[in-house]
């Protein structure tokens, strides 16, 4: 980091102080307390019992928790991999074509990002309902056997939640990639075309390397969103049927406030934090190495 | 060079298909909210909103959400301007380390802090209060806001600061009279983002609040959707009521939303 501009000024501390106080009291201190609580077995009421790292061992050993992290991995495919693949295809086609109405398209596909997740969940729960619009369409085209209560189905509930993630992340990723592709100098396309590159070769030789940074940002944002799926699961499935859609974020809430396993909940929260740090730093480092 | 007709048509088909996919669930809920009530209240059209407002107590939820959002926006933007100014234009020992400390806060998931916060605030008798909903969100927004305003102040003209100093302006006057006025676009972006995050926040009010008068709009909607089971129309109307304020702001200031959420994500 280069040194910031300006002269040395002790008064800087005074300007930072109010922000630091609130931040310290309501984020940093609680994070420390989360680490502390995670070392105890505590039901939230009586005296806790020190258990060392056993709450962390449970993250690996406890079948329910392992499953929850497994479900998060499945969600990453829907929240991150699919939107990046779709977004890359969509953005590169639209960028090449220079179609009209792209500004309006951007506004529309970005819209799901600003709607409260609870509203999104209410809408999709209706779409997936046994007598909802999705099943109406399936029955109308003669696929009666496929119609079902999607969110109540042991096999399909998790993918159904995942598709909601694909829905609201694809727009974000596409808009991000469109912005990145718009910055590619025209000459590079022309050079590729002079070399006789077709659309596909051009994509891999020119477009993909140029938007590495944007892909890294997209992956970081969407993976974190997948790991933090709480509102959506809480409103659509409450982790069910059975535990087929339980995810780490939901387990934090469920254990701390419904089961009285505060230490375990804190440990899951700490693991999520570490995971998010590692992913953020790791993905950005990978992208940096690629461009350097 | 014009693309062949088939390719152009194909591109527009692609635009329309994905546009419809993005709008589909939103239109579904709008259409349902405006149709005849399937719950048998006899209302329809815009009357559904009145009915939902009444049955679902959305007036109270919106009031709480508005109070929380405005407070969080005002306080966190103010604190972020101050700290961003210091990090962006002054040099002092430990500035780098302190700044990285704030960066941590951008990545910190609410899930990790909400558990200890609840139990600590409970022992202070502060759960189920306005403060329990607002202050943690001020802290989260200050983390992002500090980062955001620092980048702005760093890129803003150093000659402006120098000129103000030569005119004899102290750091306080330099900030408010020289640097803040041209910072309006950056401030608007920060304000709309913090407003959206606070309005849409669900986990913190869910954990912190038990009394109905303190329920925020998304929380109220979640409860309504759990309790009101006689149909979808009024639930849809309630969802539209809860979602509309942010969507309205988005309609007018969408550039700020898109720029903020994309650039804010691109950390150094």
Secondary structure layout:
The complex is a heterodimer of chains A (292) and B (268).
Chain A: H1 12-37, E1 40-41, E2 49-50, H2 54-61, H3 63-97, H4 102-110, H5 117-128, H6 133-140, H7 157-182, H8 186-194, H9 199-210, H10 212-227, H11 231-236, H12 248-259, H13 262-291
Antiparallel strand pairs in A: 1-2
Helix pairs in contact in A: 1-13, 2-13, 3-7, 3-10, 4-7, 7-10, 8-9, 10-13, 12-13
Chain B: H1 5-34, H2 47-56, H3 58-89, H4 95-107, H5 110-123, H6 130-155, H7 158-166, H8 171-179, H9 184-200, H10 203-208, H11 217-227, H12 233-263
Helix pairs in contact in B: 1-12, 2-12, 3-6, 3-9, 3-11, 4-6, 6-9, 7-8, 9-12, 11-12
Offer a concise description of the structure.
With 292 residues, chain A is mainly alpha-helical. In chain A, 72% of the residues lie in helices and 1% in strands. In chain B, 48% of the residues are buried.
Question: What does this protein look like?
Answer:
The complex is a heterodimer of chains A (292) and B (268). Chain A has 292 residues and is an all-alpha fold. Chain A has a domain at 74-246: MetI-like (MetI-like fold), CATH 1.10.3720.10. Helices cover 72% and strands 1% of the residues of chain A. A two-stranded antiparallel sheet of chain A has the order 1-2. In chain A, strand 1 (40-41) and strand 2 form a beta hairpin. In chain A, helix 8 runs antiparallel to helix 9, helix 10 runs antiparallel to helix 13 and helix 12 (248-259) packs antiparallel against helix 13. Chain A is globular, with a radius of gyration of 23 Å. The two termini of chain A are 17 Å apart. With 268 residues, chain B is mainly α. Chain B has a domain at 64-216 and 247-263: Orthogonal Bundle (MetI-like fold). Chain B contains twelve helices and no strands. The longest helix of chain B has 32 residues, at 58-89. The model of chain B has no long low-confidence stretch (mean pLDDT 91). At the A-B interface, helix 1, helix 3, helix 4, helix 5 and helix 7 of A face helix 1, helix 3, helix 4, helix 5 and helix 6 of B.
